[in-house]
Amino acid sequence: MQKLIITAALTGAEVTKSQQPNLPVTPDEIAEAAYACYQAGASIVHVHARDKEGNPTQSYEVYKEIKEKIEAKCNIIVQPSTGGATWHTPEERLQPVELRPEMATLSCGTCNFGSDVFMNSEEYIEKFAKRMKELGVKPEIEVFERGMIENALRLVKKGLLDTPVHFDFVLGVPGACPGTPEDLMHMVRSIPPGSTWTVAGIGRAETPLAVMAIILGGHVRVGFEDNIYYHKGVLAESNAQLVERIVRISKELGREVATPDEAREILGIRR
Ligand code: KMH
Ligand code: ZN
């Protein structure tokens, strides 16, 4: 079985400091949290930027500062979000891709997102995929609903996405696919052989789905973007604490954890 790739989703666009006081929001805090997660065993950081007021931003400049600060500390793979917040325009969302990061997310369909709608029209999915391909950025396909897998496979047919495809099943978002074991199994059975996949279980689905992924040969995403608690009603101390738990479980289950360079090898990323 491949070594386990752990992604730390540090900040997200929705969580606030009042909900999770240890949420990293400034470029320095985000870089510090990325380094702590790297030391704990994460090989990818999924990054959302915030402006000086702590609001989500897709600013090229802020992502640049964050990327440079993380890269000054360690060789973890930096994966900016192109999802941003539900109210960002597609043009805003695409900005961090211009930094030519090694990876970026690519959401492959529209769904409800709490009381909002997360819009991803075919036109913009294709635009995002085309630009990532031109710049040599490896997409992580964000799948919130089963049909989004088919949308990604259509990109492959159109020559806009290379195989093997790397999927992230984001399960448990209110308004989209729930985070049950059956839902994860259905997703895993729906992707072509040779694909790689990770799972981001939202809220209380985080740890159970992570354990399933460790056993099934998938990969794992944890972090405050997806879940701010360590136990029911008990806030996690840091993103790194959530990574440490996955490393411990994985080792107990006999699966080794990938370094960033091993993750690059598994995902076919050339530096
Ligand atoms: N914040 C969500 C609306 C991504 O990062 O690519 C979208 C999101 C997906 O978080
Ligand atoms: Zn995100």
Low-pLDDT parts are none
**Rg of Cα set:** 17 Å
- Small molecules in complex: (5S)-5-amino-3-OXO-hexanoic acid, zinc ion
Helices and strands, in order, run as EHEEEHEHEEEHEHEHEHEEEHH
Q: Give the strand order, joined by hyphens, for the main sheet.
A: 5-2-1-12-11-10-9-6
**What CATH architecture do you see?**
Alpha-Beta Barrel
Q: Any idea of the CATH class? A: Alpha Beta
| CATH superfamily membership | Aldolase class I
Total domains: 1
Question: What is the average per-residue confidence, as pLDDT, rounded to a whole number?
Answer: 98
Structural class given helices, strands, pairing? alpha/beta
Biggest sheet statistics: 8 strands, parallel
Report on the structure:
GO terms for molecular function: 3-keto-5-aminohexanoate cleavage activity; metal ion binding. Its EC number is 2.-.-.-. Keywords: Metal-binding, Transferase, Zinc. The strands form four sheets. Strands 5-2-1-12-11-10-9-6 form an eight-stranded parallel β-sheet, sandwiched between helices. The protein has a two-stranded antiparallel ribbon with strand order 3-4. By secondary structure, the chain is α/β, with parallel strands linked by helices. 37% of the residues lie in helices and 20% in strands. The relative contact order is 0.18. The protein is built from nine helices and 14 strands. It has one domain: Alpha-Beta Barrel (TIM Barrel). It is globular and about 45 Å long. It starts with 5 loop residues before the first strand and ends with a helix. (5S)-5-amino-3-OXO-hexanoic acid binds next to strand 6.
